[in-house]
Amino acid sequence: MAEEQALTGVKKRQQIAGTRKQVFIWVALASAAVVVCLVVGVNLFQRISYQGKVNSELGKTDEALQNSVDAIDGLTKNVNDLRANAALTLPNLKSDDSTVFQVVIDALPTEDDSVDLSSSLQSRILSRSGASIEQITIDSASTSTSSLSSSSDETVSSSTVAFPVAQAINFRISIVGGYDTIRSTLQDIERTIRPIIINEIALEGSDNDLTATIDATTYYSPSVDYRVGSKEVPYEEE
């Protein structure tokens, strides 16, 4: 009887030990399953988040393309209006120009043309009235980059439209002449095809011998880079 009780106690301890091992194994398996689920869940969330960014870039591309298509009719009308504009006819063109659109380029250049501006002021605008030119000072404008670009990764493209903003070129001229000559010079500046804003005029002397110092501003507009580019959509935020 004592032996049976001893055996029963050993068996119970063996069963308890076996149960502990099974519980430990199940806990370990459950922990592993939880870890695997967490890893899979995080990976799945990252993929969903990345796909969201890709879809956002696709939406931008689609919107830019749609805007470009919608602008075709208006652009065509504007070009036709320029072609029919009597103010942009042959008398306003240079001898080596073949289209009226050069007049538009002359009115609002696509780059900082400080040297050409100085030459034009001296030889084509200020010289008409017969005023004596004492000084021409031009402050070069700071270059600003504006572009229309397309961007894409290996499977997705997106476009971002940035329109050029007119950049100011400030200049100062000093001329000498009679009252009528100075007035004629100001009229010549007003009639030039290029937009010129006179900020300040300082006059010294008499009606027959005036010195006029003119502070003015003109502009240029950087050209648009319309070439298709590429952009990688990063999988993770940098």
Brief description of this entry?
The protein has helices at residues 2-84, 101-107, 114-125, 179-191, and strands spanning 132-139, 148-152, 157-161, 167-177, 196-206, 209-220. With 238 residues, the protein is of the alpha+beta class.
Which bin fits the share of residues in helices? 40-55%
CATH class of the largest domain: Alpha Beta
Strand count, sense and barrel status of the largest sheet are: 4 strands, antiparallel
- Percent strand equals 15-25%
Task: Write out the CATH superfamily name of the largest domain.
Answer: Ribosomal protein S6/Translation elongation factor EF1B
Describe the 3D structure.
The strands form two sheets. Strands 1-4-6-5 form a four-stranded antiparallel beta sheet. Strands 2-3 form a two-stranded antiparallel ribbon. The protein is elongated and about 135 Å long. 48% of the residues lie in helices and 22% in strands. It has four helices and six strands; from the N terminus they run αααββββαββ.
What topology emerges from the helices and strands here?
Elements: H1 2-84, H2 101-107, H3 114-125, E1 132-139, E2 148-152, E3 157-161, E4 167-177, H4 179-191, E5 196-206, E6 209-220
Antiparallel strand pairs: 1-4, 2-3, 4-6, 5-6
Annotation keywords:
238 residues; 4-stranded antiparallel sheet; Alpha-Beta Plaits; 6 strands; single chain; alpha+beta; two-stranded antiparallel sheet; 2 domains
